[in-house]
Amino acid sequence: MAHIYLWLVAGAMLGSIPAGSLEEGIRWLNIRNNKKVLLLLYQLQRIPPYKCLEDRSNFKFPWTPEEILQMKKTQRTCLHHTMLTHILTAFATKHSFAEWDHDHLSEVLSILHRTLEGLESQAKEEGNRLACAKVRSLIRRYFQGIYHYLEEKKYSSCGWEVVLVEMMKRLGTM
After folding, report:
1. In this structure, is the dihedral angle defined by the CA atoms of residues 172, 28, 83 and 161, taken in order, positive or negative?
2. Helix 2-15, helix 157-171: angle, nearest 10
3. 111 close to 33: Cβ distance less than 8 angstroms
4. CA distances, 163 to each of 50, 67, 71, 75 (Å)
């Protein structure tokens, strides 16, 4: 089941790539990095998602995929940067290192860090200082819900698996 989900996400990502656009070159690299992170996150899974169905939660992501596609380029860059920053923060904790394989997790964190550096240079080229307060505020609130959920679940294996699936789902829409 999880294999099918991963291929569907990868297919959706590839289908949304603009062909031949030089301006979107960095976006292509980010999509490639997202795909790499998705595969590594998938490999982190220790418990099949169906075993944690009772632990599922609606984290209330503030945008639909369609709304993300309609955002201005600078807003999408800000959204992507803010999301990856929070994902990096969530997975760089002692709780996540206690849960998963250190080598895989370190590789995920390394790719996230490199992608963030690329987004920061892209933002500078666009003349944007990532000053998108509303986007940041909504993402911060979204992740506060995730952090609260993990605390409530006492950082259990199923709690982390639910968050892992949520992050894979969100990365797949960017």
Report:
1. positive
2. 20
3. yes
4. 14, 22, 25, 24
**Alpha carbon distances (Å) from 39 to 63, 113, 124:** 24, 16, 29
Render pLDDT for 20-29 as a digit per residue (tens, 0 to 9). 443 454 454 5
Cα dihedral: 8, 68, 62, 64 (round 10): -50
Pair of tokens at residue 21: 């656009």
Cβ–Cβ < 8 Å for 89, 144? no
Q: What pLDDT is stored for residue 172 in this prediction?
A: 81
Encoding tokens for residue 43? Answer: 């490999």
138, exposed or middle or buried, with CB in 10 Å at 0-12, 13-18, 19+?
Answer: middle
pLDDT in tens, 40-80: 888 888 888 889 999 999 999 999 989 988 888 888 888 88
Q: Is the pLDDT of residue 166 over 70?
A: yes
Which residue has tokens 């600078």? 74
Which amino acid type is present at position 58? N
Task: Output the pLDDT for position 15.
Answer: 47
- What is the pLDDT averaged over residues 111-119? 86
